[in-house]
Each structure stands twice: as C-alpha cells, then as structure tokens.
Amino acid sequence: MADKKAFHSGFVAIIGRPNVGKSSIMNRFVGEKVAIVSNKPQTTRNKILGVATREDWQIVFVDTPGLHKPRNKLGEFMMKQASDAREGVDAVLCVVDAQHIGAGDRAVMEDVLKMNCPRFLAVNKVDLATPEKLMPQLDTLHDLPFDQIVTVSAQRGDNMDTLLELLAQAMPEGPKYFPDDMMTDQPERLICAEIIREKALLNLREEIPHGIGVEMLAITKLSDNLTEIHANIYCERASHKSIIIGKQGKMLHDIGTAARIDIERMMGTKVMLKLWVKVREDWRNRESDLRATGYEE
Ligand SMILES: Nc1nc2c(ncn2[C@@H]2O[C@H](COP(=O)(O)OP(=O)(O)OP(=O)(O)O)[C@@H](O)[C@H]2O)c(=O)[nH]1
Ligand SMILES: [Mg+2]
Questions:
Q1: Is pLDDT at 218 greater than 60 in this prediction?
Q2: Residues 140 and 195 in one domain
Q3: pTM of the entire predicted model
C-alpha cells in the first residue's frame, strides 16, 4: 500500500492597516463569511479564526484588527489582539490596499518583516487600481524581502486561489487542528453580536459606528425553529441614540431586519430579534462595559 501523503497545517496571521480588506480575504479563503466586513475602518475588534481545510492541508487564519494608534481602552484591547495574533504562527500575511500604500503601511510591512516565519504580502483591491497607478506602487515593493508578493482582489477573486496555494505550501507537517466542517472558533453569541454590529456599521455614518458596541442579553431557543434574541446596542451620546433609532424607529428597524435575516441563515431557524439602544458615555474606556460587549481576554 502506498504511503499516505503527510498532512500539512498551520496558523497564518493576517496583519495590516484598517480597511485594507483583511477580513474580506479571510472570508474568501474560508468560503464563508466568518468575519464581518464594512467600509468603515476599525471594523474588526477581536482576533477571529477562520479555517480552510483541504484533503492534505489545513490553514487556520487569524484575522486581526487593523493597526492604528489606540485612543481608548477598546483601541488598546484591539492592538493587543493584533500583536498577540503574531505569536507562534507558521506564516504571516501582510495586506495593503493597491489604491494607496502609505507611510502607515510601510511601517506595518517593516514590522512584519521582522517576524521569523514565511512572510507574504497581498496587494489587495487590484480591481480598483488602474495599471498606471498600480505599477509604480509595485515597483517600490519589489525590494522588500517578502517570500511572495501577490496582487489580489478579495472581492472579485483574482489570484486568491494562487495565494491560498502558496500559503498551503508554506505550512509545515502538522495535525488537523479543527474538524472539516468547522469554519471559525467564534461562539454563536459572538457571531450574532457581530452581525448586529455589521448592520449598524453599514447603516450609520461619521463617528457613530466607532462608538457602537453590542451586548447580547439572551438567546433563547423557543422551539426547533424559533429563536428569540435580545441585545443592547451601546452608543456614546443621546444624539447618537436618536440617530440609531431614527425617525419613527426606521433606522433601528432596518438594522434589526438586516441582522435578523443573516442570523436566521446562520442558525437555520426563524428569529425574533429585539434590540434596545443604550447611551453609555465613554463605554470604550470602561472595563465592565468592555466585558459586556465581549472585549476581554
Ligand atoms: N473593490 C474591492 N473592495 C474590497 C476588496 N477587499 C475588500 N474590499 C472592501 O474594503 C472594505 C474593507 O474591507 P474589510 O475586509 O472590512 O477590511 P479590514 O482590513 O478587515 O478592515 P478592519 O477590520 O477595519 O481592519 C469593505 O468595504 C470591503 O468590501 C477588494 O478586493 N476590492
Ligand atoms: Mg476586518
């Protein structure tokens, strides 16, 4: 009987500035939306695992919050999550936005290049960058000692299979860390909270999204196909609260409806979703509020 080919596996941290498309890349690799995505920077707040499994390899991706200067305890928590994610990984995937590679991205790349493991660079959103804009940017990257530099589009899919294959080839021999059907380490209640936050991010503008947190109060399975969910949406000012609720409750209704549809799909049951909006001034600096919204070690 022929020897069975050795299984390869490992952890890959995804690192980069806010909004470059880290979570979109992970979702594409996993084949499911395990991390929420929005056009607002600082969408991701926790380390989130996403698992891609094939016949002879498994990669566990660690999506991280975009690197920025923290302005409150939540920001500090996020940056700690991002730096912890680098510990003990088998490879790192640094991500930049093809439309603009700035000083902040360069600092991140320099930092990533200090890591002692295979280092990959994804230049994402190539669908948005014209060749005239992209070429000079790529020229400035070629000298950097990444193991591979790949231009990709997480949204359109360009080169994503190639990048995934290159990452798989860099994985050492190892066990299957997670069962085949497991896509993420996130518990159901955290996924629900994230879905609600995503819908708030998509619907709200300016500074409000950054000040939003979701506290899950209860998830009750009323029957095999009906779940009741209660959650608080935190915001930082009374004026924000009235915007989140909207005229005759329309905004909150829209956020709730969009969230309910996604949660129903995830849970495979009908969902009754009840949301309340609470003003918690400075909650992003208060330990107890951070704990309630899921931001603790
Ligand atoms: N056109 C285009 N848009 C993209 C692509 N990848 C991501 N985006 C968009 O870019 C925005 C940010 O994507 P995210 O995946 O949330 O970015 P992130 O790096 O995880 O952001 P943070 O969690 O805030 O650090 C979203 O609006 C995505 O839809 C891409 O390849 N092409
Ligand atoms: Mg993200």
A1: yes
A2: no
A3: 0.96
